[in-house]
Structure formats: C-alpha cells, structure tokens
Amino acid sequence: MSVRIASPQLSAEVSETGAELIRLQDEQGRDLLWDGDPAFWTGRSPLLFPIVGRVRNDRIRVGDAEYELPRHGLARTSPFDIAEANPSRCRFSLRSDETTLERYPFPFQLDVTYAIEGNTLTIEAAAINPGSAPMPVSFGFHPAFRWPLPYGAPRETHALRFEHEETAPIRRPVDGLIAREVYPTPVQGHSLPLQDSLFEKDAIVFDDLKSRSVEYGAPDSGTIRVDFPGMPHLGIWTKPGAGFICIEPWQGYADPEGFEGEFADKPGIVVIPPGQSRAFTIAITVDSKGF
C-alpha cells in the first residue's frame, strides 16, 4: 500500500514498506525519482536506520553481546503503520518488536512525516527512545534522482553545486567499510561535474562537510535542491551507467576500517536519552528554471 500527497507544483507517493518515497513528479507529471530498475538497483529512496552503510562483519557490539545488523539497518525493509494521510501530508510509524530487538537491542519508535508545500517536499524522521537506557543511533536519507533529469539536458552536463566550497579530502568505501585512506576532493570550488568514472570505486563520502545544501541539475535546465540542516555527512553514489544519482545526507556513516569498539562509540553515532527524541530532516525543492 502507498499514500499519495500533492500540491499544484509537486506530487509524491510513499510506500508503507520502509516508509520509502517511491515517486516524485513535477507539475507536468515528469518523474524525478529513479524507478528501481532491478538491472541496476531496486531502491528508490530508502531510509537508513539505525545504521548508515555497513558495520564490521555485519555485527554490532553492545556490552558483552553482539547482534547481527544488515547494511543500512532495519527500517528500509520493515512495514510501517500509516499514522496520518492527508492531501499534502502523511506520517508513518515503526515500533520496535521482538524481531528488531534481536538485531538492535534498543526499544525505539521511528516516525517519518512527508509534507508538500508548493514545490518543496519535506521529510522529517523522528527517532524516539521510549526505553530506560540511552539509545545510540545513526540515520540517513538515500534519495535517487534521475540522471539525466527529464528536462532535456544531456547526461554529461549535469553537476552538483554545493552551498560552500568543499576542500576537505573525501573517503571511499572498501567492502562497505570506510577506508583509512583519504582522497583529494573532486569538487571544483562549489561544483562537482558528474561522470561515471567518479563512482568506479563506489560512493564518494564527505565526512568533513561544510555545506548543508546541494543543488543538482544542468545549466539552463531544471534543478533539484536538497537542503539538510543538521545532517553533517553526505554520500554521493551511483552505479556507472545507471540512470540515477543518489544525494544522501547522513548522520553517521559505515564503520571505519579496523573499528572494533562498542556500537555507541562508532563515529557519527548520536545517543538519544531515555524519553527523548532526535529529528532528522531534508527538504527537496524542484525548480524548472535551472542554475
């Protein structure tokens, strides 16, 4: 089952499986989101919780125990309850149960709200700790946008434009973990021209990011801006030759190579006290006028 929300400028469809955005269209019905072609990747915009990426040996350590936790965590394959469904807003909820506690030993509630106003879709995920112990968690968004966008510009003219100049080195995954080695940033001032060769070694990971906004598109063509206040990390990813580019704001990232510590000590983890919550938000704004 899915829920559709809309404004005159934008429409979205969200699945109850994973509370995943599965369609995003502009005012002319043009698809902006990847279609999940299994020849490349079946995802469209999964939510990453309570980890981003992979943990070492796919296991986390909490105290004296270890728990098997798959890449990107539990939420993306879990059935959410539809808590609210209005013409321009919907909310989904996931609560821990016996199955989740076998992999992530913390009671939780994850509420995900989608709201459209004008040409902007806002997504807020609230991780709630109903338990009696601190809850360590990461969270990530993983939207895959069409590359090229459906505005007529050639694929090779598309680029990302960062809010600030990004001069810090980047990192790369190795077998799903973050390599010790750092690489010079491919960002040229504010701009990252997109080409398949950037992704021959998997994703680009910004773990020392200045920007909290990225614009994607081509000159004299439509663009998509992704704002992510409060999200300190960013992944950019595709499979070479595929028709999508993922712009992924994260709180946290995969285990660094050699990390063997407690889950709560993993880089990028935030700890939510008992009875409290932490919100993670992005806003996706569509502009048909372009750069």
Protein model, in words:
This protein has 291 residues and is mainly β. It has a domain of 199 residues: Beta-galactosidase, Chain A, domain 5 (Distorted Sandwich), CATH 2.70.98.10. It has one helix and 24 strands. The strands form six sheets. It has a nine-stranded antiparallel beta sheet, with no helix packed on it. Strands 4, 12, 13, 18, 21 and 22 form a six-stranded antiparallel beta sheet that branches. The longest helix is centred in the middle third of the chain and has 4 residues. The protein is globular. The mean pLDDT is 96.
Q: Major sheet: size, sense and barrel closure?
A: 9 strands, antiparallel
The name CATH uses for the topology of the domain at 2-149 and 237-287 is Beta-galactosidase, Chain A, domain 5
Mean pLDDT: 96
- The percentage of residues in β strands lies in 35-45%
Order of helices and strands: EEEEEEEEHEEEEEEEEEEEEEEEE
CATH architecture of the domain at 2-149 and 237-287: Distorted Sandwich
Strand tally is 24
Content-based structural category: mainly beta
* Portion of residues within helices: under 10%
Radius of gyration: 18 Å
Sheet with most strands: strand arrangement: 7-8-9-10-24-20-19-14-17
Shape: globular
Residue runs with pLDDT of under 50 for 5 or more positions? none
Distance between the termini: 36 Å
Total of helices: 1
GO biological process, one term: carbohydrate metabolic process
Protein name: Aldose epimerase
GO molecular function: carbohydrate binding; isomerase activity
Pfam family, one: Aldose_epim
